[in-house]
What does this fold into?
Amino acid sequence: MTAVFDPTPAPPAEILAVLSRLCPEVVRDIEQNWNAPVSDYARHLWRPVARPASGPAIAARSILREVLQPRLGMIMLPEEIGKALDDFEHRPVIQSGLHCLLLMDRITFDALLLAWLGAVENGLSAFFCFMGTTMTMETIGREGPGWLDIGDDKVNLFGMGRHKLCRKSACAAGPVTLNKRALEAVGDERDASRWLGTLLASQDKVFGTAADALTALNEDLVADWDRSGMARPVFIDDRLAASAMARHLEDDGSLLSSLLFEPARRQRLELALEVAASGPFGRFLPNATDYFWGIREERVRKLVLANGHLIEPDRPDGLSIPFERQHLKQALLDGLLLPNLFLTFLVLAILPRVRVVGGLRQIGYVALFHSILLASLDETAPEERDLAAELQVRENAWGMRVIDEEISVREQLAGLPEGALFPDLLRQYRLRTFAETTDDLKLVRENARWRKIGRASEV
It folds into this structure.
């Protein structure tokens, strides 16, 4: 009998087997789009999502829409807001995994490009990107929101001293202005026209915080790179999640209020968190703070829950906030608290039934967050039983470093037409397959966390 040769390339089975142990929904996306253009993969990620059906999910979606509306009002006309929200209702997707960095950062640029492709291929006028802002202005040497990466060098974006950069967080540091002198010094260098003029147009502006500055500058860059306005990014961050969380806490009968403040329910939640952390995938879980981050003196602070208060460990003079619904709600509204990643993803994605598109660690911990919430539900309560049924479908997708160019953003932009950078890249990524772009999932293969999962499964 003659063997039949199938010429169609297939994704590496051993990698899919590892991914499927924690997030089979990501594996299905990869399998369906392996030989398709990257733009088709992006279109697939922004496909419709089933509307919320349970009481807690409907309430969470309503809260999310309400906190998104004023954010949209900052950048859109009233008639545009309605269309953006209607599109989001049908295709509720948030590109996450972006840190609070200027789009000249290669990884941030590539992730935003994938989101833009997904929005354009689905005919959306706007798309949402979550930018985490709890990071310090300098994370390691000359890395982080305080630095502008121009390929062969880095510019101190806001002119802060290194000591200040490593001691202030992007969401709290401010007011800030651009480092005009340093930016102008770049002006004589080649290809600066594709981004420098856009930044210098804001050289005299005073921004409330570094996060506000980076959001505004990134909006301006995308508008200049796509002057036709095919799709507009809407940047949201931890502060919008804090507003959503505060809305959940307005009602002492809400699911999150019950989980956090009813002793038996919180005990069940904390047990679910402990079980997930001690399980085979525990290395994916971020556990740096207890439920919330604190903000004091322009810096994000780790908090622990002790004796009924959220406090800074080993800081007697630090923050101390009673772990009670009204106190936490007010602290969120006053900018003293931000929800941790678990609560952030609950209010922005998992409860309101929004697909979240993120990186290789995120697809792991979002799957775990789903399982933790499921384990914490009371299925004797009809609404929570209905929510548990909804949560059987996870809206979790890989979109960070799917496009992963090895050259700097400056080099990527150099040969592209001014004013139509993104449209030109759209044409390119309609010709490059998902398999080619990811180099047969090379990034997954080389990822330390996923490698460990694979080795453990072989034992």
